[in-house]
Structures are given as structure tokens and as C-alpha cells.
Design a protein that fits this description.
2% of the residues lie in helices and 46% in strands. With 169 residues, it is an all-beta fold. It has one domain: Glucose Permease (Domain IIA). It has an 8-stranded antiparallel β-sheet. A 3-stranded antiparallel β-sheet has the order 1-14-12, with no helix packed on it. It is globular.
Length: 169
């Protein structure tokens, strides 16, 4: 059940950010992302329980500008410190409008393996798989200030189905 896959298609728009994972929204806040983006942005985080499908999706159309993996701890993924202390992979996508979107896959207390598919320079689109986190965890999105967020903390969301936000323009 953990490793099930359900193909999903989403009709995308150039400013649309689509949910990267099944789960529950645990963070919607303005924050300083110092590790990779070096700026203030909006963070939206989705916690995946062991009952959610663990496929992760590309949240927007663009070109992959950065991919990295950072070893770390395995704290419970619903804790705020898991974003900076846990094992994680990061992908930065530059949209056609020039916005940089950071998608961070974060391992949790049970998850011990993160798989990330995109490579630097690759063109990616909504409907493609970002990767997989085995046995649950969370996915953090870091979006430009001014982005209109469409979800609330506690809301149940579905990867490649739920519209998370609309980029500013």
C-alpha cells in the first residue's frame, strides 16, 4: 500500500502551483529560506502519513536549476525543525516567468529513503513525478512573496490535483 501509484493528470496554467504530495497541510507562513534561496518567501508544507500515497509531483512548469541531497536526522516530519534538521532533497525550478520555486522532500521518523528524479537543466512540467519518499514524511514548497495561497493549515490535499497557489503577476 505504501508504494502504490495512481496516474493523475492536471490541466496546468503558467502561474499555477499544484500540490506536490498527498497529505495534510501543516504549514502556511512567511519565512526566511537561507539554505538555498537566501530570501523571504512563503512556505507551504504537506505532511504525508503512512496511509497517504508517497509519490511526489512536480508543482510547476519550468527548468530545474538546482538538485541536492542533505544527510540529516529522522525527526517526526510534522515538527517544524524537520525542514532543516532531517535528511532531505531539494529541487529548485525556475518558471517561465522567472520565479524560483524550491521543493524540498523531507524524510521523517519512519522514512529512510528519498528518491528524486529531476536533474539540473531538465525541463519539467506539472503531471511529471518529482520522486518518492518511502514510508511518509513531508514536502515543503517555498514560493515567492506575493503568491496567492489557496490552502489552509489542516486541509487535506492531493498531489497533482489540489491547486496550492497562484504566482504573482
Amino acid at each position: 500500500n505504501f508504494f502504490r501509484y495512481e496516474p493523475r493528470k492536471h490541466s496546468d496554467g503558467p502561474l499555477e502551483i499544484v500540490c506536490p504530495a498527498d497529505g495534510r497541510v501543516v504549514v502556511v507562513e512567511e519565512t526566511e529560506e537561507t539554505e538555498l534561496l537566501g530570501c523571504r518567501c512563503l512556505q507551504v508544507s504537506v505532511f504525508m502519513s503512512v496511509f497517504d500515497m508517497h509519490v511526489n509531483w512536480i508543482p510547476c512548469n519550468g527548468v530545474v536549476e538546482h538538485v541536492s541531497h542533505t544527510d540529516g536526522r529522522f525527526l517526526s516530519a510534522h515538527l517544524p525543525k524537520s525542514s532543516t534538521d532531517n535528511e532531505r532533497s531539494a529541487v529548485i525550478i525556475r518558471t517561465e516567468g522567472g520565479d524560483r520555486i524550491l521543493v524540498r522532500q523531507v524524510a521523517g521518523a519512519i522514512a529512510r529513503r528519498i528518491v528524486t528524479y529531476p536533474e539540473v537543466g531538465q525541463r519539467v512540467d506539472i503531471n511529471q513525478n518529482l520522486g518518492f519518499i518511502k514510508f511518509g514524511s513531508r514536502v515543503d514548497l517555498y514560493l515567492p512573496l506575493g503568491t496567492k495561497v489557496h490552502v489552509k493549515v489542516g486541509q487535506k490535499v492531493q498531489g497533482n490535483i489540489t491547486d496550492i497557489a497562484t504566482l504573482p503577476r
